[in-house]
Predict the structure.
Amino acid sequence: MQKRATRPWDFAAAFDLLGVTFDLCSVPRGVLKIMNKESRIDKICSMLADIEQTRSINPAKASEIQGLLNFAVRFYMGRGLKHLVSAFMPFTEGHKAAHADELVALCAYARTMLQSQRPRES
Protein backbone atom coordinates (compact mmCIF):
# COMPACT_ATOMS: atom_id res chain seq x y z
CA MET A 1 0.00 0.00 0.00
CA GLN A 2 2.75 2.41 0.93
CA LYS A 3 4.29 4.21 -2.04
CA ARG A 4 7.89 5.15 -1.55
CA ALA A 5 9.52 8.34 -2.79
CA THR A 6 11.68 7.75 -5.85
CA ARG A 7 14.11 10.59 -5.24
CA PRO A 8 15.42 11.94 -1.93
CA TRP A 9 13.46 15.18 -2.34
CA ASP A 10 10.17 13.48 -3.29
CA PHE A 11 7.54 12.90 -0.64
CA ALA A 12 5.82 9.56 -0.18
CA ALA A 13 2.19 9.41 -1.29
CA ALA A 14 1.40 7.29 1.80
CA PHE A 15 3.12 6.91 5.15
CA ASP A 16 2.66 5.10 8.44
CA LEU A 17 2.49 6.80 11.81
CA LEU A 18 1.71 5.03 15.09
CA GLY A 19 0.13 2.01 13.42
CA VAL A 20 -2.00 4.06 11.04
CA THR A 21 -1.48 4.61 7.31
CA PHE A 22 -2.15 8.06 5.88
CA ASP A 23 -2.75 8.05 2.13
CA LEU A 24 -2.23 11.45 0.52
CA CYS A 25 -2.94 10.41 -3.09
CA SER A 26 -6.36 12.05 -3.13
CA VAL A 27 -5.41 15.21 -1.23
CA PRO A 28 -5.46 17.32 -4.43
CA ARG A 29 -9.18 16.46 -4.61
CA GLY A 30 -9.62 17.38 -0.95
CA VAL A 31 -9.69 13.80 0.39
CA LEU A 32 -7.35 12.32 3.01
CA LYS A 33 -7.57 8.55 3.51
CA ILE A 34 -6.71 7.05 6.89
CA MET A 35 -6.59 3.35 7.68
CA ASN A 36 -5.08 0.98 10.19
CA LYS A 37 -1.70 -0.27 9.09
CA GLU A 38 -2.13 -3.67 7.41
CA SER A 39 0.30 -5.32 9.79
CA ARG A 40 -1.76 -4.10 12.78
CA ILE A 41 -4.92 -5.75 11.46
CA ASP A 42 -2.96 -8.88 10.49
CA LYS A 43 -1.51 -9.15 14.02
CA ILE A 44 -4.90 -8.79 15.72
CA CYS A 45 -6.53 -11.24 13.30
CA SER A 46 -3.74 -13.76 13.82
CA MET A 47 -4.18 -13.56 17.58
CA LEU A 48 -7.95 -14.01 17.21
CA ALA A 49 -7.43 -17.00 14.91
CA ASP A 50 -5.13 -18.59 17.51
CA ILE A 51 -7.83 -18.18 20.16
CA GLU A 52 -10.40 -19.67 17.80
CA GLN A 53 -8.15 -22.68 17.25
CA THR A 54 -7.41 -23.29 20.95
CA ARG A 55 -10.99 -22.37 21.92
CA SER A 56 -9.73 -20.67 25.08
CA ILE A 57 -8.44 -17.35 26.35
CA ASN A 58 -6.70 -16.21 29.52
CA PRO A 59 -6.94 -12.75 31.12
CA ALA A 60 -3.48 -11.68 29.89
CA LYS A 61 -4.26 -12.55 26.26
CA ALA A 62 -7.70 -10.94 26.52
CA SER A 63 -6.11 -7.78 27.89
CA GLU A 64 -3.55 -7.70 25.08
CA ILE A 65 -6.24 -8.11 22.42
CA GLN A 66 -8.45 -5.55 24.10
CA GLY A 67 -5.58 -3.04 24.13
CA LEU A 68 -4.78 -3.57 20.46
CA LEU A 69 -8.46 -3.34 19.52
CA ASN A 70 -8.94 -0.27 21.68
CA PHE A 71 -6.16 1.61 19.93
CA ALA A 72 -7.20 0.45 16.46
CA VAL A 73 -10.85 1.27 17.03
CA ARG A 74 -10.42 4.63 18.74
CA PHE A 75 -7.60 6.08 16.72
CA TYR A 76 -8.75 4.97 13.31
CA MET A 77 -12.38 3.96 13.17
CA GLY A 78 -13.97 6.17 15.78
CA ARG A 79 -16.66 4.44 17.80
CA GLY A 80 -17.99 2.14 15.09
CA LEU A 81 -16.43 -1.00 16.52
CA LYS A 82 -16.22 -0.01 20.19
CA HIS A 83 -18.44 -2.96 21.03
CA LEU A 84 -15.54 -5.29 20.14
CA VAL A 85 -13.41 -3.74 22.88
CA SER A 86 -16.28 -4.11 25.35
CA ALA A 87 -16.91 -7.73 24.35
CA PHE A 88 -13.41 -8.73 25.53
CA MET A 89 -13.68 -6.88 28.89
CA PRO A 90 -15.11 -9.82 30.90
CA PHE A 91 -12.24 -12.02 29.74
CA THR A 92 -9.62 -9.50 30.93
CA GLU A 93 -11.08 -9.53 34.43
CA GLY A 94 -11.21 -13.31 34.58
CA HIS A 95 -14.89 -13.17 35.60
CA LYS A 96 -16.25 -15.00 32.61
CA ALA A 97 -15.51 -18.60 31.84
CA ALA A 98 -16.52 -18.44 28.21
CA HIS A 99 -18.36 -21.17 26.48
CA ALA A 100 -15.91 -22.20 23.76
CA ASP A 101 -18.46 -21.81 20.97
CA GLU A 102 -19.27 -18.24 22.07
CA LEU A 103 -15.58 -17.35 22.22
CA VAL A 104 -14.97 -18.78 18.75
CA ALA A 105 -17.96 -16.85 17.39
CA LEU A 106 -16.73 -13.60 19.00
CA CYS A 107 -13.25 -14.02 17.52
CA ALA A 108 -14.62 -14.86 14.07
CA TYR A 109 -16.94 -11.85 14.20
CA ALA A 110 -14.11 -9.55 15.32
CA ARG A 111 -11.84 -10.75 12.50
CA THR A 112 -14.60 -10.27 9.92
CA MET A 113 -15.33 -6.75 11.15
CA LEU A 114 -11.66 -5.72 11.22
CA GLN A 115 -10.93 -7.13 7.77
CA SER A 116 -13.98 -5.51 6.19
CA GLN A 117 -13.28 -1.95 7.33
CA ARG A 118 -12.71 0.52 4.55
CA PRO A 119 -10.39 3.51 4.85
CA ARG A 120 -11.82 6.62 6.49
CA GLU A 121 -11.94 9.57 4.20
CA SER A 122 -12.06 13.15 5.35
The chain has a mean pLDDT of 83.
